[in-house]
Design brief:
This protein is mainly alpha-helical. It folds into 2 domains: 179 residues, no CATH class; 76 residues. It is built from 14 helices and 2 strands, in the order αβααβααααααααααα. Strands 1-2 form a two-stranded antiparallel sheet. Helix 1 crosses helix 2, helix 12 crosses helix 13 and helix 13 packs antiparallel against helix 14. The protein is elongated, with a radius of gyration of 30 Å. The termini are far apart.
């Protein structure tokens, strides 16, 4: 198998911290030139991977490490060095098969950390992940952010690695089918078993419109269709029927599009009505000097 670009490794930020320590640099926010694995560097990375809890991310990383090209630089960012605000829950997100499959798949479809965190916390199970906990996990173990080097080319490279590599295709079968932007988001959520009724409606309408558009193309009178020779009346009737069906299909397609837009508008209104308004506090402006209590009354006498 061909060598793999460093940025095609979802756990690259975790690996960069280990390389930084191996080189003896103090762990702080900075960028150091690299370009070549120093003696013992890959052994350090492999030891780190082997010490991870049993999970798919570990399987992927262990198979990938021998093929990785060295990074051109070691970039330590704030998420690598800032102390976690809350207790990290990396092991839970790595080893819980149900959660990890959801998080991996959504991240491979370029969903934001906030959206992933909200979806996970809305699941049955009272998970209550904070944004910081989810963000730190994704940054270190499953980083699919374009601004951190995960370009479309690196994504395709990782997908090819999973397809071609040492049994990983069967391990990551669900992610290969539902990740990497191959399906509409609503269909991914349905396949994950976490779609809301609104997302189900979007999916059904999308499929219906797709089928209608295909039918319209097939019914287009400009397309040739076979008819028995010698029967001009049959030809004329077939043409009229096809034109009528096409008009009906177009009208139905327009109705569904209008319904889809109206549903989206109603959803925005519902989201607005359900939104929690921020708490406003009124601060009384400080005044200088003493206030005479008698000013609150018409006069000071009883």
């Amino acid at each position: 198998m061909d060598k793999i670009h460093w940025d095609a490794n979802p756990s690259r930020k975790l690996c960069e911290v280990e390389l930084f320590k191996h080189e003896g640099y103090p762990l702080r926010v900075c960028t150091k030139p690299y370009g070549k694995f120093t003696p013992g560097a890959k052994k350090v990375l492999m030891k780190m991977a082997e010490n991870m809890p049993e999970c798919k991310t570990k399987d992927s990383l262990i198979e990938m490490l021998p093929l990785l090209l060295p990074p051109q630089e070691l970039k330590i960012q704030q998420s690598c060095v800032i102390r976690d605000r809350q207790m990290p829950r990396h092991d839970e997100l790595l080893t819980n098969d149900y959660l990890s499959e959801i998080v991996r798949t959504l991240a491979l479809n370029r969903m934001s950390t906030g959206e992933i965190c909200k979806i996970v916390n809305d699941l049955d199970g009272n998970y209550n992940f904070s944004f910081d906990q989810m963000d730190k996990f994704l940054f270190r173990y499953w980083n699919t952010r374009a601004d951190h080097g995960w370009t479309i080319h690196r994504q395709q490279e990782y997908e090819n690695f999973l397809i071609e590599g040492y049994g990983l295709k069967s391990i990551f079968e669900f992610e290969l089918e539902n990740g990497f932007g191959h399906l509409a988001q609503s269909e991914v959520l349905i396949n994950l078993g976490i779609a809301t009724p609104i997302q189900w409606i979007d999916h059904i309408m999308g499929k219906t419109l797709q089928n209608l558009n295909s039918s319209i193309d097939m019914l287009d009178p400009e397309n040739k269709f076979s008819i028995r020779s010698g029967y001009p009346s049959d030809l004329a009737n077939a043409y009229k029927i096809r034109a009528s069906r096409m008009a009906m299909a177009k009208e139905l397609s327009m109705m569904l599009n209008r319904f889809s837009k109206s549903r989206a508008d109603f959803q925005k209104v519902e989201d607005f009505n359900n939104a929690e308004l921020p708490e406003f506090r009124v601060y009384r402006k400080n005044t200088t000097g003493h206030t005479n209590p008698q000013n609150n009354y018409s006069n000071g006498s009883g």
